[in-house]
Amino acid sequence: MEHLSVKNAQKIILESVAVLDAESVKLEQTLGRVLAEDIYANRDIPPYDVSAMDGYAVRSADIKQVTATLEITEDIKAGDMPTRTVRAGQCARIMTGAPMPDGADAVMRVEDTQSLSEHSVQINRSAKSGHDVRMRGESMRKDEVVLIAGTEITPGVIGVLATVKGAQVKVYRHPRVAILSTGNELEDIDEPVDLDKIPNSNSYALMAQVQALGIEPALLGIARDDPAELEEYLQRGLRFDVLLVSGGTSVGVHDYVRPTIEALGVKMKFWRVAMKPGHPVAFGLSQQNTKGSAKDTFIFGLPGNPVSSMVCFEQFVAPALRSMMGHARLYRRTIAARLTHDVKHQPGRTDFIRVTLAKREGGYEATATGAQGSGMLLSMARADGLMVVPAESTGLAAGEQVTVQLLDGTVFQEDAGFRE
Ligand code: AMP
Ligand code: MG
Description:
Elements: H1 6-16, E1 22-26, E2 39-40, E3 50-51, E4 55-58, E5 68-76, E6 90-94, E7 106-109, E8 113-117, E9 120-123, E10 133-134, E11 145-147, H2 155-163, E12 168-172, E13 177-182, E14 186-187, E15 198-199, H3 202-211, E16 218-223, H4 227-237, E17 242-246, H5 257-263, E18 267-270, E19 275-276, E20 282-285, E21 298-302, H6 306-324, E22 331-332, E23 334-339, E24 350-360, E25 363-368, H7 377-381, E26 385-389, E27 401-406, E28 412-413
Parallel strand pairs: 5-6, 13-16, 13-17, 14-15, 17-21, 19-24, 23-25
Antiparallel strand pairs: 1-12, 2-11, 3-10, 4-6, 4-7, 5-9, 8-9, 18-20, 20-21, 22-28, 23-27, 24-25, 24-26, 26-27
Helix pairs in contact: 1-6, 3-6
The structure holds adenosine monophosphate and magnesium ion.
């Protein structure tokens, strides 16, 4: 247990959590959610052969020899229906998206023609049958599956859903997340400044990390280091799908989280992970079963140190929440970068160094954001990413290639992307 690796801890978590149930949501509210149903086309798109250009609907046989002069039978705008059949020697003026008239099998764009009069046009190029015609059903065919369950809803997906009239969409439910900070020393944001106290930053940094995943968490406030008070707060937290507890998870005499949580019947899967920052990080389920169900509460005991809390959130909580929301890509995107300086490292734990990135000829450069103490929140505030120092490393040298987990952005990937 003492040497549980980050990857194995992630594995334990992801084997425990399960995707939540589906709910029906208005299309306008679905951006970033995950489809919980297959989506079928309800009609052919386009519904008939249409012109892909502003120009002339012609018979390709008539323009084998060019130039050719054709008689214009009518004007067809988008939304109009053609009224005349195009016969030999004829064409129709047509706009993009308008239905092709009978008889015509190609479109010649305006730029390749010359208007002779209102009723005749000279065609300067020849074209094969089908040229610049969008065929009926070429975008979507009625009754075919156009989107499968598990698809992340992007603006493009919203466009497809609107096309098939998906005004209400089945998506996976978002987890309800509660955040609890613990510690006698903490002063909350609305309390008067007492210079002997430590400002509660974790509740808010964690709140923002949850919000960045599209979830609005509930802030439960601060529980004092007192078993009875802690129990009361924890019980409230156990009504949520996910409870994040900050602080009190180490082994100090006033770290009551562990005994209180276990007294409440929470089955803990681990209490430490071989990482820095973030060593005392815990995970468990509120029910005795080992398989996740929608009724379970998943509890993350996050270290009180502000940087540790945030780094642990990124490694463990974010993938779990994304998995519960039905995403296939659970992890923040990683990129390769070159280190601009040496980094000391004792083998044994995976280190997450906060870095800024600079784009240079040939790739990115990573530079640590100053002092890296686990209480130094500015190291996190200034960071573009977390650089991973593998557990077995005996130190990194300037110029070495490293893996950096990007902290911003909405693009996620399927695996953690780094070697421990
Ligand atoms: P703990 O994990 O409870 O032993 O706390 C470790 C360190 O993190 C202590 O220095 C705490 O004061 C600090 N800490 C704990 N909780 C918070 C919080 N919510 N916001 C800021 N710092 C905290
Ligand atoms: Mg504490």
